[in-house]
Specification:
This protein has about 100 residues and is of the alpha+beta class. It is built from one helix and three strands; from the N terminus they run βββα. The longest helix has 28 residues. It comes from Chenopodium quinoa (Quinoa).
Length: about 100
């Protein structure tokens, strides 16, 4: 975790799964929205992963992309709740 540059790195190096040597870098970038002075945060995730012997590159990338997409959706939910002042473990429809 590099809090100054807003970068997080994690690795999955072992386990009973298809993501062998899975290395993910997440970075946050502040961008101005349409020149109106409002700022947004752009989240960029990149990864490398070894292709298992019993799989192929296409299937491995599809699986890894699915994991990344789920992680980003969960991150968005957490951030939206933080901004709205709700607790992270509260249901979305609670009042």
């Amino acid at each position: 975790m590099d809090e100054e540059q807003h970068i997080s790195v994690y690795r999955v190096i072992d386990g009973d799964h298809k993501l062998i040597n899975f290395h993910v870098t997440t970075s946050l970038h502040e961008v101005v929205e349409n020149g109106n002075g409002n700022y947004k945060t752009l989240v960029v995730e990149s990864y490398t992963v070894d292709v298992p012997n019993d799989s192929n590159e296409k299937d491995t990338c599809l699986f890894a992309n699915t994991i990344i997409e789920l992680n980003l959706k969960n991150l968005a939910i957490v951030v939206e709740k933080m901004i709205s002042g709700r607790k992270v473990n509260e249901e979305r429809n609670s009042t």
